Amino acid sequence: MGPYDSSIFVGSSSGSSSSSFTGKPPDQIDGLLAGAGYKVRSSELRQVAQCLERLETVMVNAPTEISQLVNDAVHYNPSDLASWVDSLLSELNQPAPVTVPGGSSDYSNLSFVDSLEGLTINQTAITDDWTEHHGAQQQQDVSQQLTVVTAMEEDSGIRLVHVLLTCAESVQRGEFSLAGSLIEEMQGLLTRVNTGCGIGKVAGCFIDALSRRLYTPQGVGSIGSSYDNEILYHHFYEACPNLKFAHFTANQAILEAFDGHDCVHVIDFNLMHGLQWPALIQALALRPGGPPMLRLTGIGLPSPDGRDSLREIGLRLAELASSVNVRFAFRGVAASRLEDVKPWMLQVSPKEVVAINSIMQLHRLLGSDPTRESTIETFLRWIRNLNPKIMTVIEQEANHNQPEFIDRFTEALYYYSTMFDSLEACSTLQEKALAEIYIQREICNVVCCEGLARVERHEPLAKWRARLGGAGFQPLHLGSNAFKQASMLLTLFSAEGYCVEEKEGCLTLGWHSRPLIAASAWQAVAEPSIPIGQRLLVAVNFQTSFKPTPLAFRF
Amino acid sequence: MAGGNEINVNESKRVVPLNTWILISNFKLAYNMLRRPDGTFNRDLAEFLDRKVPANTIPVDGVYSFDVVDRASSLLNRVYMPAPENEVQWGIIELEKPLSTTEIVPVIIFFHGGSFSHSSANSAIYDTFCRRLVGICKAVVVSVNYRRSPEHRYPCACDDGWTALKWVHSRSWLQSGKDSKVHVYLAGDSSGGNIIHHVAVRAAEEEIEVLGNILLHPLFGGQERTEAEKRLDGRYFVTLQNRDWYWRAYLPEGENRDHPACNPFGPRGKSLEGLKFPKSLVVVAGLDLLQDWQLAYVEGLRKAGQEVKLLFLKQATIGFYFLPNNDHFYCLMEMINNFVNSNC
């Protein structure tokens, strides 16, 4: 290779486990293309170039085929250039060109002979610097990065943030009287900022949450009844596109997974008002070849007042299904906690194709009893053993489950600032107020609660990928059609600031480039269950990562 | 459409490294799918295909970044800064103090390219480029996410540029030097280069200080077909046909390429004589079919008595600066570094 060797070693990520087992060195990925957002193996560069060339020839000779490409094709994971160009070629019924060995004369050998007009540069010195630096950048990019900040500008606002963080630190250190006086100081600062919006509003929530944590920790677990929560959820649904994005994206993926199947069963981990399902029922009604027989199992909290609210929702959905001639059966499963649900309750039949739908639910299983096996792992294992055709997972894209309180607090402060900002921009006053209370409850749980009471244990997509990969799931890529659906949804909102992004087959909804929600889809890998050795390894890791603290907090 | 496509492809392959060829050909292919003959643009597919990266407050290779939204205009700016010496300060964004009270730290307002229609401030190629700029020049870079065509035509992008300029000037945390002011430079590639010219003209007219302009193969044009346009059409990734599409998408409806937004020193342009215009560094790629327009731009500045330096890179194609795998890249960076750090 010439002086500008751009290939560096990047360890393979969760995707290709086979190479690590056989001991072969993972393939090298072109480091410079990686910096541009494309993953191409060095060994594949020529092949990819030839495919691009082929596609270009088609473009010149048959331009109408290109518009067909655009209208009909669904694109997946554009970062994987090799598979992207391959799929385009097959769309055009073009065979992929055979790699010509030793075709190096076609391409410049990465060295520059031309001297520039009147300028010369010491090549070697600069090159080494740069390829090494870039290599380091790639390594760090692979590991998890910290939060993005949407900076807040007003002076008092900045001061408030500083004091908030200091207060959280002192809470973590057990310096309660200091924390208390800081809270008083902040309440004073609050009088000098606009608490109706922006940093004032967010700070207000967090100051309130910190006070609760200090002064009434026992009372925090039960904020509001589940009935209240349902009402707030509904307003949050109306106020902003977040939940709609979740539903649309999941439905699109489920619809595609159900293609060609006559007997389908959706298991919804949190039915709420069943807001997600009318759209799917209608889409199934309209599918070419006719609708399947649809079963829906909705999991939800038991109704406190003796009403069978799950059944009521099921009846309404059944009416809708009947009106569009979709054969439909509903079953409600009442459970106080998701982990209390057992496979036999779902009555999955071997003849049917199963879709699991988890919208902001999996993270609730991350709180754990240190004396037992990890809840999430047990849960994921039996889910996988149901052999679902698809599992849609939508989660908050945030790192609110870090072991250190100050880290969670900081991350939450910035995440919910973004959330409040976005709410600001797009809802009517009344909906906004109730949606904000919904968010405030989430904040309170993240900030005030510990142990099993802390259920809002959001983790970022990268962590879920690792977890689900390790539990015997492989990704199903969400494509450009799902992306388009999501974009169309956003244009219905007059708030300009929302964006959808595609990354490695998953879609993220963000506000001004700050991600809020990540949607991904999974299917069970046809493999035996996790080998014993690995299971033990996980258990050991779990034990050693649990550190008892000298403070009064319950972990 | 130029014939002999195979020859065309072979030519471009010989002048750029393999991975660069793949990168730019990939864009060319994708962009072809996005432009519709009726002048509309497949924005959804464009956003789906565009590779984006988040900002990162933790320094990577000595540079960290964060996004700021200007509430008044809803404009997103991505700010890139050199990492603090002290690791303890990593991850903390300082918005209360100036960059320095003794040294001058240039603030480069960067406008990404994309022929007015493609890319964003958080596109991976531009995020990477801005990071390299910071690393080499020890400057702060503010990348502007201006509104794009065809949804937003001229003068939207230039208005957004103006707003960004005013915003940058008003940030106390971007000030530096003993004179406590923001030392602003404007930089942009392709359409970004075009935008900064217009922003700089307005700045000169309204007496807002800009210390220098850096135009990286800026997008200029005109009704006439120049010699280079005819000679290089379709040979190095770019065709006249697609250039025309972008002008039709950007310029006000019904306008032609002699509109001053496209042809600032053309028949409908105006002279900058007598105007306190910033010094300019204009970079021209010798294999860019638009070079005659860019050279005419340089001439236009010279005739108006403005200070301008031309960097002509004979064997460079468009986009040579995306990957640091060629001499042109290093040459360019050295020039930019000298340009913003010369204190003259």
From TrEMBL, chain A:
<keyword id="KW-0539">Nucleus</keyword>
<feature type="short sequence motif" description="LxCxE motif">
    <location>
        <begin position="165"/>
        <end position="169"/>
    </location>
</feature>
<feature type="region of interest" description="Leucine repeat II (LRII)">
    <location>
        <begin position="312"/>
        <end position="344"/>
    </location>
</feature>
<dbReference type="Pfam" id="PF03514">
    <property type="entry name" value="GRAS"/>
</dbReference>
<dbReference type="InterPro" id="IPR021914">
    <property type="entry name" value="TF_DELLA_N"/>
</dbReference>
<feature type="region of interest" description="PFYRE">
    <location>
        <begin position="354"/>
        <end position="445"/>
    </location>
</feature>
<dbReference type="GO" id="GO:0005634">
    <property type="term" value="C:nucleus"/>
</dbReference>
<feature type="short sequence motif" description="LXXLL motif">
    <location>
        <begin position="362"/>
        <end position="366"/>
    </location>
</feature>
<dbReference type="Pfam" id="PF12041">
    <property type="entry name" value="DELLA"/>
</dbReference>
<dbReference type="InterPro" id="IPR038088">
    <property type="entry name" value="DELLA_N_sf"/>
</dbReference>
<dbReference type="GO" id="GO:0009740">
    <property type="term" value="P:gibberellic acid mediated signaling pathway"/>
</dbReference>
<keyword id="KW-0832">Ubl conjugation</keyword>
<comment type="similarity">
    <text>Belongs to the GRAS family. DELLA subfamily.</text>
</comment>
<keyword id="KW-0805">Transcription regulation</keyword>
<feature type="domain" description="Transcriptional factor DELLA N-terminal">
    <location>
        <begin position="30"/>
        <end position="96"/>
    </location>
</feature>
<feature type="short sequence motif" description="VHIID">
    <location>
        <begin position="264"/>
        <end position="268"/>
    </location>
</feature>
<feature type="region of interest" description="Disordered">
    <location>
        <begin position="1"/>
        <end position="26"/>
    </location>
</feature>
<keyword id="KW-0804">Transcription</keyword>
<feature type="compositionally biased region" description="Low complexity">
    <location>
        <begin position="1"/>
        <end position="21"/>
    </location>
</feature>
<protein>
    <recommendedName>
        <fullName>DELLA protein</fullName>
    </recommendedName>
</protein>
<feature type="region of interest" description="SAW">
    <location>
        <begin position="448"/>
        <end position="523"/>
    </location>
</feature>
<dbReference type="InterPro" id="IPR005202">
    <property type="entry name" value="TF_GRAS"/>
</dbReference>
TrEMBL record, chain B:
<dbReference type="GO" id="GO:0010331">
    <property type="term" value="F:gibberellin binding"/>
</dbReference>
<dbReference type="InterPro" id="IPR029058">
    <property type="entry name" value="AB_hydrolase_fold"/>
</dbReference>
<comment type="similarity">
    <text>Belongs to the 'GDXG' lipolytic enzyme family.</text>
</comment>
<dbReference type="GO" id="GO:0005634">
    <property type="term" value="C:nucleus"/>
</dbReference>
<dbReference type="GO" id="GO:0005737">
    <property type="term" value="C:cytoplasm"/>
</dbReference>
<dbReference type="GO" id="GO:0048530">
    <property type="term" value="P:fruit morphogenesis"/>
</dbReference>
<dbReference type="InterPro" id="IPR002168">
    <property type="entry name" value="Lipase_GDXG_HIS_AS"/>
</dbReference>
<dbReference type="Pfam" id="PF07859">
    <property type="entry name" value="Abhydrolase_3"/>
</dbReference>
<protein>
    <recommendedName>
        <fullName>Alpha/beta hydrolase fold-3 domain-containing protein</fullName>
    </recommendedName>
</protein>
<dbReference type="GO" id="GO:0010325">
    <property type="term" value="P:raffinose family oligosaccharide biosynthetic process"/>
</dbReference>
<dbReference type="GO" id="GO:0009740">
    <property type="term" value="P:gibberellic acid mediated signaling pathway"/>
</dbReference>
<dbReference type="InterPro" id="IPR050466">
    <property type="entry name" value="Carboxylest/Gibb_receptor"/>
</dbReference>
<dbReference type="GO" id="GO:0016787">
    <property type="term" value="F:hydrolase activity"/>
</dbReference>
<dbReference type="GO" id="GO:0009939">
    <property type="term" value="P:positive regulation of gibberellic acid mediated signaling pathway"/>
</dbReference>
<keyword id="KW-0539">Nucleus</keyword>
<feature type="domain" description="Alpha/beta hydrolase fold-3">
    <location>
        <begin position="108"/>
        <end position="321"/>
    </location>
</feature>
<keyword id="KW-0675">Receptor</keyword>
<keyword id="KW-0939">Gibberellin signaling pathway</keyword>
<keyword id="KW-0378">Hydrolase</keyword>
<dbReference type="GO" id="GO:0048444">
    <property type="term" value="P:floral organ morphogenesis"/>
</dbReference>
<dbReference type="InterPro" id="IPR013094">
    <property type="entry name" value="AB_hydrolase_3"/>
</dbReference>
